[in-house]
Specification:
single chain, alpha/beta, Quinone Oxidoreductase, Chain A, domain 1, 2 domains, six-stranded parallel β-sheet, globular
């Protein structure tokens, strides 16, 4: 067994790799050895730097020292409890777990990873699940149109669900050219460089002056909310997918009343209509291996766990240069 270490946030703005002892599996559990874990850039930097108001769900869930540093990884089964029948030693699984070399968790929270997918790309299942929530509540439907605001990691997954769902028009707005290139590769039909304010005229042209029936805000930036409302069509639906730490800064505008808008928020843990983690994971892997969910090139940076400080500095200070930031646990 490789060295047993995990990435922790000991204090606000601090990152450390530390030794730890994973516990043996109890009933219904697996002991797992991580191959790769993928950073959720927005959420993890929000937690690391405590960029949230008191009284928010971030404040209630996170404090320092913080060991819940990540949410998506691919791992191999090292040992299984005697009552576990669906996984065995050597199986490769996807898990929602912090950045660590090992983990012990219920088998029911793991999903099988198909043999015909690149294991680094398989890590995207976590953020794909988050984006699926928007596709489900919008809902995305064949031949439809959507405006996706933000082409960061969650935005990239949202674009790909829109493509997989057969939408006819997928318009993406983002001020970073790198993100727009990847959005286009993932299925966006129209990529506009800038903020919503910058591209207001272009959006009116694309929608024939009517606005968009579905607008998905993936950014987590409270300042974007008003612009998303403004871009919506009469009786349109605005989906809040990006999770801000400052919800009090998200201000309603008169568009809500004058257009009769529907605002729906969706979160990673919102299981609706039987769409559980494992069911979404299975759909994601079928889509990815079937060619309708392209993932090539989305992992832009790879780090050893020892370089975790540099990885989080990149995520926080040079976010425009990164989409997928991966930790390779074979390099420790």
């Amino acid at each position: 067994m490789t060295r047993q270490r995990r990435i922790v946030f000991p204090a606000r703005g601090e990152v450390r790799l530390e030794a730890f002892e994973p516990r043996p599996p109890g009933p219904g559990e697996l002991l797992l050895e991580t191959r790769y874990s993928l950073m959720s850039i927005g959420t993890e930097t929000t937690v690391l730097h405590a960029r949230y108001d008191p009284g928010t769900h971030f404040a209630s869930r996170f404090s320092f020292p913080q060991i819940k540093t990540g949410v998506q990884a691919v791992a191999d089964v090292v040992a299984a409890a005697a009552d576990v029948t669906e996984f065995g030693t050597g199986d490769t699984i996807f898990m929602r777990m912090a950045h660590a070399s090992h983990a012990t968790l219920p088998a029911a929270l793991c999903s099988p990873v198909p043999k015909d997918i690149d294991l680094k790309s398989a890590c995207w299942a976590g953020l794909a699940k988050t984006a699926f929530r928007a596709a489900h509540v919008a809902p995305f439907s064949i031949g439809g149109t959507v405006l996706i605001v933000g082409a960061g990691p969650v935005g990239q997954m949202t674009v790909r669900w829109a493509r997989a769902a057969g939408l006819n028009s997928i318009v993406v707005v983002d001020p970073v050219e790198l993100r727009l290139r990847h959005a286009a590769a993932g299925g966006a039909t129209d990529c506009l460089n800038g903020t919503l304010e910058d591209v207001r005229a272009a959006l009116l042209e694309r929608s024939a002056g009517a606005g968009f029936g579905i607008v998905v805000d993936t950014t987590g930036n409270p300042a974007v909310f008003a612009g998303a409302l403004g871009a919506a069509a009469m009786f349109g639906r605005v989906v809040l997918l990006g999770d801000t730490g400052y919800p009090a800064r998200q201000a309603l505008t008169s568009d809500v009343m004058t257009k009769g808008l529907t605002i729906v928020a969706t979160h990673d843990h919102h299981d609706r209509d039987g769409w559980t983690q494992r069911r979404i994971d299975a759909l994601f892997y079928r889509s990815a291996t079937g060619g309708s969910f392209p993932l090539d090139g989305l992992i832009t940076h790879e780090f050893s766990p020892e370089a975790c400080g540099a990885a989080y500095e990149l995520a926080d200070q040079h976010r425009d240069e990164a989409i997928g930031i991966l930790f390779d646990w074979s390099l420790q």
